[in-house]
Design brief:
Helices cover about 75% and strands about 5% of the residues. The chain has about 150 residues and is mostly helical. It has one domain. It has a two-stranded antiparallel sheet. Strand 1 and strand 2 form a beta hairpin.
Length: about 150
């Protein structure tokens, strides 16, 4: 592993930890079932899988001495499909009420943020993390919004 690749990997995983942790702390603070641990793990794992998709191409090309093309969007599609199933498990119908929609959406969003970090889209990931945190904090489900 080249030094630049190592530093890039550490940077991306650290940013995924921070993004997932920030949103997860807010969810834990509001007593939601998917909190710090779950959001952090989802964000880091999404980032790791995108790093695999990105660096796998480099390693195949180096090993075979031929140019290789592997579509990293296929990995992203697989991640989002799997996270959709995870989020579906968080949604529960209780009488006429449906609970867990915000949790499911938050998990799905944090996975997308992890994918963006894994691919190196730091500005977009930072903006999405900021937006997700503030949407969840300012507009908590079923409660009066906090003052800005």
């Amino acid at each position: 592993m080249a030094e630049g690749e190592l530093l890039g990997t550490i940077l991306r995983l650290t940013l995924a930890l921070v993004a997932g942790g920030l949103v997860g702390l807010e969810r834990s603070y509001h007593g939601r079932p998917a909190g710090f641990r779950e959001h952090t793990l989802v964000c880091i794992s999404s980032c790791m899988l995108m790093l695999l998709a990105e660096y796998h191409v480099i390693h195949i090309a180096a090993a075979t001495q031929q140019a290789a093309f592997i579509d990293p969007t296929r990995m992203a599609q697989g991640i989002m499909t799997g996270i959709g199933f995870l989020g579906a498990g968080a949604i529960v119908k209780e009488g006429f009420a449906i609970r867990g929609l915000t949790t499911a959406a938050s998990i799905w969003m944090i996975s997308a943020i992890g994918i963006m970090i894994g691919m190196g889209y730091y500005l977009a990931a930072g903006a999405a993390t900021f937006a997700t945190f503030n949407i969840n904090y300012v507009f908590p489900a079923g409660r009066k919004p906090h003052a800005l």
